Amino acid sequence: MLVASVIAVVVMVGIARFSYTPMIPEMVAALGLSKSVVGMLATVNYAGYLTGAVLITRISDLGLKVRLYQLGLVVAVVSTVLMGYTTNVWLWFILRFISGLSTSAGMLLGAGLLMSWLIKNNQKSELGVFFSGIGLGIVLTAVTAELIKDPFTWDQQWVIYGLVALALLIPAWRWMPDYRACALPKRGQPLVATSAVDSYVSCNWRTSAPALAMWSRLPFWWLLLNPCPSFRGRAGWSGIAGLSATPACWLWDVFSRRWGQWLALYLAYTLNSVSILMLIVNTSLASVMVSSVIYGVSFIGIVSMMLAMVGRAFPENPSRPMSRLTFSYGIAQMMAPAVVGYLADVEGNYTNGLWLTLVVMALGVLMLHLARRAKEREAEPALSP
């Protein structure tokens, strides 16, 4: 089941979304695409991802979620293949938007369905293994790009990516469990077996009514500041980040289990800030590569731990709070390239954009700290005799 979930992430996130990164220089060289078109293709993909996140917040029917998750797998393959069969920019925009919808299905519906399955089957409600699929997907697209960039034209390369996705879709579909049997009772009813509750406690969470009530009142905007800097333009660099992110998901789960999720999140944010600061101080190849490794390790930890955190707090419908957090993620992905690009045009470099990223990162840590304090204050009355 876990293998099927990881493969699905590779298809719907790794290939459907990140295959565009190594394809940028190929399409620019072959077709002479302008920077504005290249940027817009990325933006509409983010827009599709954001739209999917919003729509998922409105869905509570488990059967519909499963059908949309399966549809996302098919759409990931089709939207990738069709990119190689047209040179119409508007059709590209539509395909990248649809691909973004598929990515939101893989990330959010997939994570929510997996969380429900883990709870229902008395397993540790952790998503580290699941999110390792992002890193694996980035590595797969980077390696594939190196293998096919010389023998094949840009349009053939898109088709090859789609065929790889199709090959992976088969085991992801065949090994997919019956998620419809994982429906959990609504809040206020008995939630899960004792062993599952014990697994919650081992992750520093409790499923008592006061704790759930507290989380329903906790302002989500305190958790929404999470800048997502990325390194674009070179397939090899994206592969380095993905390679480091792959084992990091599991390692962050181990760390948070031992030392607590709050400390793990603080550490992940600190490491992410270090990776940004390194690019400000030194832009040599060695510095960029080390920064990419640290970034890959830290960003996947922030994403997986934060989504798992809110997913455990709302086990009867984990996709909804996950989608709310992802909504802000999508906004940042749409806004940040435009803001940083403007600053780069004005200043002639990315230094000010990186400093701005560090400022937003600091605000995110502050919001995280406020959320922790609010949780502790809300929990005190429930713990008092």
UniProtKB/TrEMBL annotation:
Alphabetical GO CC annotations of the entry are: plasma membrane
Q: Which residues cross the membrane?
A: 37-56, 68-85, 91-115, 127-145, 157-176, 262-281, 293-314, 326-344, 350-371
Superkingdom of origin = Bacteria
Q: Which residues form the Major facilitator superfamily (MFS) profile domain?
A: 1-376
Return the SUPFAM superfamilies for the record.
Answer: MFS general substrate transporter
The keyword RNA-binding appears for this protein: no
Q: What is this protein called?
A: Permease, major facilitator superfamily MFS-1
From which source organism is this entry?
Marinobacter adhaerens (strain DSM 23420 / HP15)
Keyword Cytoplasm set for record = no
Q: Which UniProt keywords apply?
A: Membrane, Transmembrane, Transmembrane helix
Q: State the InterPro entries in the record.
A: MFS_4, MFS_dom, MFS_trans_sf
GO function terms (MF aspect) = transmembrane transporter activity
